[in-house]
Structure formats: structure tokens, C-alpha cells
Amino acid sequence: MSAQELESAVAGLSRSELASFAEWFEEFVAEAWDAQLESDVRAGKLDHLAQQADEHFGSGRSAPL
Questions:
Q1: 46 found inside a domain
Q2: What single string gives the DSSP state of each residue in 3-44?
Q3: 25-41: per-residue pLDDT in tens?
Q4: Would you say residue 2 lies in a domain?
Q5: Total of domains in the chain
Q6: Theoretical Cys-Cys bridge with 45: which of 23, 24, 27, 40, CB 3.0 to 4.6 Å?
Q7: What is the pLDDT of residue 57?
Q8: pTM
Q9: How many angstroms separate the CA atoms of 10 and 17, rounded?
Q10: H or E stretch including 47?
């Protein structure tokens, strides 16, 4: 199914179907985001950010939450 066909199908949903779809899609996107973040963490792509946070904390450039 192409993106255009999908858009057309979504546009044809009833209000209740659209609400159900929107709820499902929001969950789907959140799970995809979580999976990507976990993958990036495992690959070390965020290590530089953790190091920077440690440096800021060590030099007193951070505030308690």
C-alpha cells in the first residue's frame, strides 16, 4: 500500500474508527521511538551526552531537579 492509498483510507474512516486508529498509531509511534532510543543507547550513540552531563555535574554547572 502506498502512502497516498493509506492517506485515502484514513480519510475515509468514521469518527470512532479514526479515534481508534489515532490511539493505535500514537502507541505504535511511541514504541518505535523507544526501540530506536534503546538501539542508539546500546550502540553508544548517546555516550557523549552522558559524558557531557557528568562533566557539567562535576564542575558544578548543574542544578538539582
A1: yes
A2: HHHHHHHHHT--HHHHHHHHHHHHHHHHHHHHHHHHHHHHTT
A3: 999 999 999 999 999 99
A4: no
A5: 1
A6: 40
A7: 92
A8: 0.69
A9: 9
A10: helix 47-58
